[in-house]
């Protein structure tokens, strides 16, 4: 079956499934592991790199073409193009292991998200397991205030191992703050503890400068309020440190089931001052296009610059470009879906664009991903999954078993090479791997991502539900604004009527009283603390 025919069958079948029966989630055990079947054995893992400490960060490489002066925000979809080539088989097309066969890191440390692997996954985060005996503090978020007692900010600004849990749902509007920084190490923000429909953080750039951080099941929606953070630097989530302060170079960061939308610069950025970062099962959507950014059109998705990044199981939808942009010497990008990018999906920007990675060579593994065109995907541009711009001698790039809607390159499927040496960097085996990493075949990625991505996938809010339905139906568009009302900024008229998100969602305010487990710092037979086991169970209930 051709790729286009398969896509049409898939979309029809998924619509019927969504209309006729509720989504049946995969079973779990008390630690929250996802249960899936396994088939063939995994490939021989490549040894993990041992890169040098991150040097000075460089500015945004911004290799993208300048935006067109007058894009059509919602053109009619083009007729189906000729089908692309059948993808070559990729590495280890097995699903995740069953609960009885969870991969364990070689050093014996527990993954902070059960049954997952990654570069930063063995962080203790806020669990307190970095201490002997383990000790953490639970901060209950009891109100939706931007600051003060019982607020999320009070937990963020506390020190020592800590876990933020929520006794309320609703919107935490922090627009007046512009930016909120996580500066103190060892924190877990556990959005799964909130009552339905969960937590949305509105109006800020959430900046991470601390190490050992886990953020789960929250929505970060930045937006276009004039009084917010400077538009040219208004990312949604922004992991960055300081090159001249080794205590502020964040490492061991895990973002699991996060939804981030409506950034004006990047929607999600991980800079080269960070290291060991995992972005799992998340939604990165609707970077704002012709809004307040000084460059004009600037709807960008995810920028990956940190050494040692795993990006797995995510949906990136409705962006002009950078979905993702990868400029790091060591990254694995597997089982992600990109939908309705105006330009390409992924760019491998050359390391020479980033002074922080001077003298390093690239080891990149890209497999099992899907790029779907949408109403804004321009026929005049290419539809490759990846554009390779790398020119650093000695680089090793593995890009196989991906699916791309309407792009033909039989010699290297789903790849366009835009550098003189790029073709010579192609290798037959993944040059970078993580022990225990399991990758779905590309034709299983869509179903997995649409079922599992984003905050509280069993309890999605209207924004994430709309994005998911856009992918299923081939609808939606790149947007200029959150709301429908035009406004002016810096002498420019911002046209919101033409392309908008329909306004801020109404998040119901519900409350409950959380009863913590006894002896929260005591260790369960699994090795996790009693508090962690409780958090895993609550996560499983909304996944």
Automatic annotation (TrEMBL):
The keyword Transmembrane helix applies. Keywords: Glycoprotein, Lyase, Membrane, Metal-binding, Transmembrane, Transmembrane helix. The keyword Transmembrane applies. It comes from the Bacteria. PROSITE patterns: PROKAR_LIPOPROTEIN. GO terms for molecular function: lyase activity; metal ion binding. Residues 31-113 are annotated as: Disordered. Residues 59-81 have a biased composition (Acidic residues). Coiled coil: none annotated. Residues 44-58, 82-102 have a biased composition (Pro residues). The chain crosses the membrane at residues 12-30. This is Pectate lyase.
């Amino acid at each position: 079956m051709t790729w286009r025919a398969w896509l049409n069958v898939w979309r029809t079948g998924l619509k019927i499934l969504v209309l006729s029966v509720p989504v049946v989630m995969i079973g779990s055990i008390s630690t929250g592991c996802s249960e899936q079947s396994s088939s063939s054995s995994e490939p021989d893992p490549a040894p993990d790199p041992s890169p040098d400490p991150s040097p000075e960060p460089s500015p945004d490489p911004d290799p993208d073409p300048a935006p067109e002066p007058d894009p059509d925000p919602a053109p009619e979809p083009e007729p189906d193009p000729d089908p692309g080539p059948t993808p070559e088989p990729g590495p280890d097309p097995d699903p995740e292991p069953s609960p009885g066969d969870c991969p364990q890191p070689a050093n014996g440390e527990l993954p902070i998200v059960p049954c997952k692997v990654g570069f930063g996954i063995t962080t203790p985060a806020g669990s307190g397991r970095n201490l002997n005996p383990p000790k953490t503090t639970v901060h209950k978020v009891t109100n939706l205030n931007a600051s003060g007692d019982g607020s999320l900010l009070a937990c963020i600004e506390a020190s020592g191992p800590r876990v933020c849990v929520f006794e309320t749902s609703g919107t935490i509007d922090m627009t007046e703050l512009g930016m909120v920084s996580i500066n103190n190490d060892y924190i877990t923000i556990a959005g799964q503890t909130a009552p339905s429909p969960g937590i949305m953080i509105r109006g800020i750039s959430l900046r991470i400068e601390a190490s050992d951080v886990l953020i789960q099941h929250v929505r970060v929606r930045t937006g276009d309020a004039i009084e917010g953070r400077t538009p040219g630097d208004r990312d949604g989530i922004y992991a960055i440190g300081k090159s001249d302060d080794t205590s502020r170079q964040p490492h061991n960061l895990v973002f699991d089931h996060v939804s981030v939308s409506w950034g004006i610069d990047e929607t999600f950025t991980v800079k080269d001052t960070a290291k060991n970062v995992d972005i799992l099962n998340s939604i990165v959507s609707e970077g704002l296009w012709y809004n307040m950014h000084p460059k004009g059109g600037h709807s960008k998705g995810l920028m990956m610059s940190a050494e040692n990044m795993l990006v797995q199981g995510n949906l990136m939808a409705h962006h002009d470009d950078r979905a993702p942009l990868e400029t790091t010497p060591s990254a694995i990008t597997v089982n992600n879906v990109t939908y309705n990018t105006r330009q390409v999906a992924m760019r491998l920007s050359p390391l020479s664009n980033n002074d922080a990675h001077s003298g390093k060579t690239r080891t990149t593994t890209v497999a099992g991903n899907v790029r779907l065109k949408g109403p804004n995907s321009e026929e005049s541009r290419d539809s490759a999954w990846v554009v390779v711009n790398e020119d650093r001698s000695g680089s090793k790039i593995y890009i196989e078993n991906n699916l791309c809607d309407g792009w033909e390159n039989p010699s290297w499927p789903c790849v366009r090479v835009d550098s003189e040496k790029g073709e010579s960097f192609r290798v037959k085996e993944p040059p970078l791997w993580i022990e225990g990493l399991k990758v779905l075949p590309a034709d299983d990625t869509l179903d997995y991502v649409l079922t599992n991505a984003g905050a509280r996938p069993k309890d999605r809010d209207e924004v994430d539900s709309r994005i998911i339905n856009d992918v299923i139906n081939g609808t939606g568009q790149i947007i200029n604004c959150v709301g429908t009302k035009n406004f002016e900024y810096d002498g420019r008229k911002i046209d919101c009527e033409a392309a908008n998100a329909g306004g801020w969602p109404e998040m119901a305010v519900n409350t409950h009283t959380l009863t913590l487990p006894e002896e929260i710092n005591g260790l369960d037979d699994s090795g996790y603390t009693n508090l962690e086991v409780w958090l895993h169970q609550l996560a499983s209930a909304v996944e």
